[in-house]
Amino acid sequence: VDGTIHLADGTDSNEGRVEICSNGVWGTVYNSGWDSREGEVVCKQLGFQNPKVYIYDTNEFGGGSGPVLLTSVSCTGSESSLYDCSYSTTYTLSHYDAGLRCENVETSEHVSCTNYDLRLVGGEVSNEGRVEMCYGNVWGSLCEDSWDIYNTEVVCRQLGLNTDIVEPFLNAYFGEGLGPFHYDSINCGGSEDYLSDCSKSYSIGVHNCKRGEEAGVRCGTKGRCSKIVNELAILLVLHLHVGCI
User: Fold this and answer.
1) Phi then psi for 45, rounded to 5 degrees?
2) How far, in Å, CA of 225 to CA of 231, rounded?
């Protein structure tokens, strides 16, 4: 049936190269401009009610054998079919095929929050953890690619935490996330007030990351140094007292 979609060559039926049927022929979708909005439409068309979408790099699942049927696809995310989005049928020989993975969002992850809000999850104290960003009422992770001390400073500043002594963490140090990866390759200068002000190599929802690559931070804590100094002073007094006996 024209407009029918399936995902091809993934490890299961929830992921793969996006293929669409037209005039009895299965073809692919060119990935130019492809991001989480187009992915959300595909996942909903496949029956996922509250999908979290993982967008993959070009030809992650191999190039298709059929023609490239749609190019320059642009969705708002509210459409019920990929054919309801704007697109072009300009023919191209190049197979830069779009791919994705769909999963249903756990109820706890689909909440009311403001786009680009941040939170820290999985830390032992409130000033550290896996960095999660809200987008589309879904909390998602940030990929560790290009993650550094400058990004960390901006995260801590946005959260109202001390930026004097900060530390970035890689390799899902504070545990793996449940939601999607919202951003990959964020590049901050360190002076920005919000992480959303920093430059990004990819649009939101587009990434080449996998579980185990979540970024984390540890921010400074006001008063921490004075507490340490006080503790050292007490130990010194006790030591001197013991030495006088």
Assistant:
1) -65, -30
2) 10
> Cα separation of 35 and 183, whole Å?
11
Q: Which helix (H) or strand (E) segment is 73 a member of?
A: strand 68-74
What does residue 87 show for φ and ψ, rounded to 5 degrees? -165, 170
Q: Where are the beta strands (DSSP E) in 123-212?
A: 128-135, 138-142, 162-169, 181-183, 186-187, 199-200
| Lowest pLDDT segment from 1-10, 46-55, 118-127, 188-197 | 46-55
**Which amino acid, 131?**
V
Residue 15: both structure tokens together: 């992921």
**Binning pLDDT at 50, 70 and 90, where does residue 235 land?**
low
Using an 8 Å Cβ cutoff, are 87 and 45 in contact?
no
Q: What are the beta bridge partners of residue 19?
A: 6, 28
For Cα atoms 17, 108, 116, give the angle at the middle one, nearest 5 degrees. Answer: 70
- Amino acid of residue 171: N
What percent of the chain shows pLDDT beyond 70?
A: 86
Chain segment 96-138, per-residue pLDDT in tens: 899 998 887 654 445 678 999 999 999 999 999 999 999 878 8
Amino acid at 43: C
Residues 6+ apart with CB under 8 A from 43: 51, 53, 100, 102
pLDDT for the residue numbered 99: 92
Question: Are 17 and 66 spatial neighbours (Cβ–Cβ below 8 Å)?
Answer: no
